[in-house]
Amino acid sequence: MAFSAVTKRSRSIGAILFNARLFPNSTCRSRRFTSETSSSSSSASNQTNLIKQLRERTSAPIKDVKAALMESNWDIEAAQTELRKRGKVLASKKSARTATEGLLALALSHTHTHNRAALIELNCETDFVARNDIFQHLALSLAKQALLVESGTQAQLGFGAGGFHVGPENLEELKLNLEHPKISGETTVHNAITEVAAMMGENVKLRRGFVMSTSSNGVLSTYLHTSPQPGLGRIAGILTLEVEDGNSQLDALQRVGSELAMHIVAAKPLFLTKELVSSDTLESEREILKSQAETSGKPQMAIEKMVEGRLRKYFEDVVLMEQKFVMNDTINVKTLLNNLSKEVGSPVKIGNFFRMEVGEGIQR
Fold it and tell me: What pTM was computed for the model?
């Protein structure tokens, strides 16, 4: 047994000596390999941290962040500059793509002479970008800017006193002061939208806006549906209530105004009163209803009665004052206002209303 142990030990020592003769630098190589592995691991960790930092700074897609860093030899400042240049070029290329998602942003202003609301629609391509806080900050900033726009053409636009559209052309060259950690400073509206589009990697577009105001005696009410944070939503209802007596009960007016703003979102009225339905719209609807009634095969007199009955139903569907109130369908909006007038002791009427929904009218 002793001889066998000695023999095994001798063979082991011999193997070590044999390997040492064949690979004289193996020990040094092993140590160097360990050192290189450690250095490589440290470098990879640094690169990962740089990718994370630049991603947080710019919100650009991670593959673009990594590519920019590699091209800039891992210089984060140079990579950030390169990303901004590249992003703006890509943003201009993507500007033709359809953007049907996004948000509505609402801004309010109250002074001793008037109350004003501005509503804008900012579009993007996906709901994912609409949830981004940079996109949302831009939308709210644009709404505040729209509050400052004046228009002398509101009567021509068919909204009566105190309501007018605001198009991109009214805002794009105005100065905008952004105060977001990742995008701040003074720039034009156009440049801010381009910058955010570059950061998001999508087409971002200011589609439209609307401004409504009332005198200090009136009440301006708003409602935003599907609201991720105050001032933002996907559907908006705005209206003004006008009262003859400026000392009327403000609480009652505000309560009913808020309920009517929600009603507008839910019921989708197209006209304020029957008298404001255009003759062309009325004639077109009458022809459609007549064609439908004639398929019944009934006499002409019966058909005419059917058309008139269905026309009344049409008014109840699209005219705000004729619609059944969504919170109490035993009365219509006209009756609701009559009851409110009695409650506050002075005649109350709706001065103006407007409804907007993200993406409506855009061909998908």
Answer: 0.74
